[in-house]
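Review box. Two proteins, two foldings.
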Amino acid sequence: MTTIQVMNRTEFTNSAKRKIRESGQIPAIIYGKATESKPVAIDSIQLIKTLRDEGKNTIINLSVDGSSHAVMLSEMQTDPIKNEIVHADFRIVDMQAEVEVEVPIHLVGEAQGVKDGGVLQQPLHQITISSKPGNIPQTIEVDISNLGVNETVLIKDIPGNGDYMFVQDEETVIASILPPQQEKEIDSGEEQEPGTPENEEGREHNEE
């Protein structure tokens, strides 16, 4: 579990938040059941590195005022223009209580159907699971090596794992292989002699 030292925030104006961001930190809130919300500032580089290396569902130990809190990132606001984190909410977690989270799906292998000319489609990129915080995987791997043309892989096809349960409908499609696109064959009727237009016969009748 990664530990990050955070600082208390005592000013909450927009200008104060702007100064925090300019100093390389991110305004944040720590909250939880039976716990008073605590405004803090967290180092942006440390947070981004932790989320990149361990995933958005990782457990982070936030240390402030001599006490520590095991938290998960519950919400993150980003600047749509700069693509930078501008605020983060951290929820204190009970390591023995199950939580529902979305986990990214990672397709593994090259599908046989793709080798045969088919087209891979993946309508589901994240899957909701129920798990204790310490058992949440960074990704759910789905092997599609044997997936052929006109075949699909569903949530129920993923091997079970005692550490977590899938919450979504087990019939939900994760990935499928569409057949190769075929060129439309034009039905030209009877064979025509080279260079003879289709409406040649019609012109001949008109000349009669």
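Next protein.
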Amino acid sequence: MLFCYHYRLKSIPRPAMKVCVFGDQHHLDEANANGIPCMSADDLKKLNKNKKLIKKLAKSYDAFLASESLIKQIPRIIGPGLNKAGKFPSVVTHAEPLATKVEETKATIKFQMKKVLCLSVAVGHVEMTQEELVSNISLSINFLVSLLKKNWQNVRSLNIKSTMGKPQRLY
């Protein structure tokens, strides 16, 4: 059973998440005004398909956004590096504000199951209120269970834990 799904939570689970924008002039101006890291098509061409530089770029950011006009050129400009890292950019249009799209990206969690039948997802942080945490946890659990063929019969156990804390069994 292999799958990869994205789900948007109400509260941002990772506020420190770093997002970079590959944009046209409109998006570059908007990103600079909001203090969001950004790169133009020329900056990407300077990477010159250098695998080490692209890997370094992929490691330095958690997610990428790209303008509609640039999204089709990205594989040609920088090759498969971002795709291999699982960080291919999401599309951002001129219609919606860039800051909103960045917030939406930060609030999105990724359920990805490969060969190992175990899944871990960040759903909160220390500064969140108890209500926000409960909301995020229940939303993510319900979404995950809805993805499974036999719903709850496919879940053996369900735990929550803080970074250094002991796991607390929920199911």
